[in-house]
Specification:
This protein is an all-alpha fold and 182 residues long. It has a single domain, classed as Arp2/3 complex 21 kDa subunit ARPC3. The chain has eight helices and two strands. It has a two-stranded antiparallel ribbon. The radius of gyration is 16 Å and the shape is globular.
């Protein structure tokens, strides 16, 4: 068991590197019927490769970089307005997702089945929080909207791509984990 209480230079380097990786992943847009980015894969890779604490901190750093205005979010956007907008809840959901994955792997280990299940549950938490946020922001700006409509806009088109990203993150994590030191 790792009893280390503080972060060292290597930890800080990994955290910064993965915050940058998430930014790069957010800039990569895959054109489909509904375009999607690789942001969630960056989150899954951070937790998978760095573990709960460092991975979650890298997600937090990524979000804070965006909040202060650096263009780290999708479409080279940044600023508090992005976070407070319709889709900001999904960005905050990345942090909640990381916390859920961290908690599950803390209690049940980091074996492949646990990682898959924890990432799927983390994704569901991200979807739930982001969808609720979207509905609140949308209703304040434009009026009432149904849950089915929001799900069809914000969740349904992304389920298969996000499951593929989880699969890729698991494969990459298992391949590269031996090179990431604690």
């Amino acid at each position: 068991m790792n009893t280390k209480k503080h972060l060292n230079v290597l930890d800080i380097t990994y955290i910064g590197l993965f915050a940058a990786l998430m930014a790069i992943c957010s800039w990569i847009s895959i054109p489909m019927t509904v375009p999607f980015t690789l942001q969630t894969m960056g989150v899954f890779l951070a937790i998978g490769l760095l573990g709960g604490k460092r991975g979650t901190l890298s997600v937090l750093v990524y979000i804070l970089l965006g909040v202060v205005g650096l263009p780290v979010f999708a479409g080279f956007s940044g600023g508090i307005n992005v976070l407070l907008g319709n889709t900001g809840g999904y960005i905050v959901g990345f942090l909640l997702s990381a916390l859920v994955i961290w908690a599950i792997t803390h209690f049940f280990g980091t074996g492949t089945p646990v990682m898959i299940i924890s990432m799927v549950i983390g994704l569901i938490v991200c979807y739930a929080f982001g969808t609720a946020w979207f509905m609140l922001v949308y209703m304040r700006a434009s009026g009432s909207i149904g849950l089915a409509t929001v799900l069809s806009w914000c969740v349904t088109p992304f389920i298969i791509p996000d499951l593929v990203k989880i699969a890729l993150a698991i494969v990459i994590t298992k391949t590269l984990k031996r090179y990431v030191h604690d």
